[in-house]
Amino acid sequence: MSVPARTEVLTTSDARSRLTSIVAEFRSQGEAAAPMFFGSHRKAGAAVVPVALVDRLLPLIEDLVIAERVAERYDGDDGTRLSFEELAAATGFDRSQFD
């Protein structure tokens, strides 16, 4: 998949008036369609992208969020390890509940 180049930034009113034709373009081109950027004074504040692209990106975004959480936990790891019995006692569980 090639990444579409960033196109012009539409004003919000231009984006609103062109939305129907942009959605039609997204349907015909799928994830290859270039995103539509819009905002005040033609400074990008938001983007509309084809749903086919969103469907493809969501699993990648989820992976990035998980990777950040793993990195945070790794950075905060002080090396302390507990046995199962120690963990059960520390959390108030009775070891016999797990047999």
Short description, anyone?
With 99 residues, the chain is mostly helical.
Task: Please give the domain count.
Answer: 1
Number of helical regions:
3
The proportion of strand residues reads 5-15%
Helix and strand content put the structural class at mainly alpha
| Percent in helix | 40-55%
Question: Helices and strands, in N-to-C order?
Answer: EHEEHH
Largest sheet: 3 strands, mixed
Global geometry: elongated
Low-confidence stretches: none
Task: Please give the number of β-strands.
Answer: 3
Lateral strand order in the biggest sheet: 1-2-3
Give average pLDDT, whole number: 89
Amino-to-carboxy terminus distance: 51 Å
Notes on the structure:
By secondary structure, the chain is mainly alpha-helical. The protein has one domain. 52% of the residues lie in helices and 8% in strands. It contains 3 helices and 3 strands, in the order βαββαα. Strands 1-2-3 form a 3-stranded mixed β-sheet. A hairpin with a 7-residue loop joins β2 and β3. The model has no long low-confidence stretch (mean pLDDT 89).
Q: Would you spell out the secondary-structure blueprint of this structure?
A:
Elements: E1 9-10, H1 12-29, E2 36-38, E3 46-48, H2 51-75, H3 84-91
Features:
single chain, 99 residues, mainly alpha, 3-stranded mixed beta sheet, 3 helices, 52% helix, elongated
